Amino acid sequence: PWERIAIGRQACVLRGFALRWEQALLSQVQAMAAQAPFRHLRTPGGRSMQVAMTNCGACGWYSDAQGYRYTATDPLSGQPWPPMPEAFAALAAQAAEAADLPPFAPNACLINRYTVGTRLTLHQDEGDAQHPIVSVSLGLPAVFLWGGDARADATQKLPLQHGDVVVWGGVDRMRYHGVMPVKDGTSPVAHPLLDGVRINLTFRRAG
Ligand code: MD3
Ligand code: FE
User: Fold this and answer.
1) Residue 55 has what DSSP assignment?
2) I need a surface site. Which of 60, 67, 124, 129 has the fewest CB within 10 A?
3) What's the complex ipTM?
4) Which pLDDT tens digit goes with each residue over 42-61?
5) Which atom of ligand 1 has the smallest separation from the CA of 160?
C-alpha cells in the first residue's frame, strides 16, 4: 500500500513506504534518544542549529566549531553511537531497491527533530554520490524544498507526510534542498516522541 512518484531522474518519493515499520521506528528512536539525546549542534560559524539531532550506526554526523564530520562516538558521552537497528537497515535497503537504485547498506543514520516553526535552510549534502540517500518522515507533515545543482536554481515545494520515504541517488544526489518551517498540527499517530514534532531519519553511507 505505497506509491512511487518520480521527482528527478534518480530521485523519487515512496508515499507511505515506512508505515509497515512505524512501531519499530518509533520505539527504537525513543530507546536511542535515551542513550544519545537529541541536541542542537553548532555550525562551524558558531550558530546553534534549529533542528535537534542525534545518530545511530557506525558513523554519526557531527558539527561544531571544528567543522562538519562523521564520528564513531558521541562526543557528549564518549560512547559509540547506538547501533543501527535491523529494521532501520532493512527499510533503507528496501527503499533503495524500490527506487531501482543499486544495493544500499547504510552505516550512518542521522535523526533530525523539528519542533513547530523549525526550518532547515537550503543546503547541499557532501558525500559519496556512489551511494544514495534515503530519508524517512514521521510525525507532523512538512514541505520539502527541492532545488537544483546551484543555490540560485528554482525550488519546488514537495509536501511530505508521516510514513513517506524519499530516495536520492546519482545525478540528483548533490541537489540543493531544505525544509520549510514546520507548521503546528497533530501527528497522525499518537506517540510521546511525535508530540508537536516532525522526526526525519536520513540514511547515508559515510567514510
Ligand atoms: C536531497 N534533512 O539532514 S531529508 C539533512 O527532512 C537534511 O530533515 C532534511 O537535509 C530533513 O541533511 C531533508 C534528507 C536529504 C539528504 C540528502 C539529500 C535530502 C537530500 C541530497 C540531495 C537531495
Ligand atoms: Fe541535507
Assistant:
1) E
2) 67
3) 0.93
4) 999 999 999 999 999 999 99
5) 6
Q: CB-based contacts of 100: which residues, under 8 Å, 6+ apart? A: none
Residues 6+ apart with CB under 8 A from 174: 124, 125, 129, 149
Question: Which amino acid, one-letter code, is at 73?
Answer: T
Q: Is the CB of 131 under 6 A from ligand 1?
A: no
Residue 89 identity: A
Domains and CATH numbers, the chain: 3-204 (2.60.120.590)
Mean per-residue pLDDT of the chain: 96
Residue 202 beta carbon below 6 angstroms from any ligand 1 atom: yes
User: In the chain, pLDDT over 90 holds for what percent of residues?
Assistant: 96
Confidence grade of residue 182 (pLDDT, cut at 50, 70, 90): very high
Cβ neighbours for 195, distance < 8 A, ≥ 6 positions apart: 187
DSSP calls for 108-174? EEEEEEEETT--EEEE---S-TTS-EEEEEEES-EEEEE--SSTTS--EEEEE-TT-EEEE-GGGTT
CB 39: neighbour CB atoms within 10 A? Answer: 15
Which ligand minimizes its atom distance to the CA of 173?
A: 1
On whether the CB atoms of residues 53 and 113 are closer than 8 A, the answer is yes
Helices 86-98 and 22-35: angle between axes, nearest 10 degrees:
130
8 Å CB contact between 158 and 143 = yes
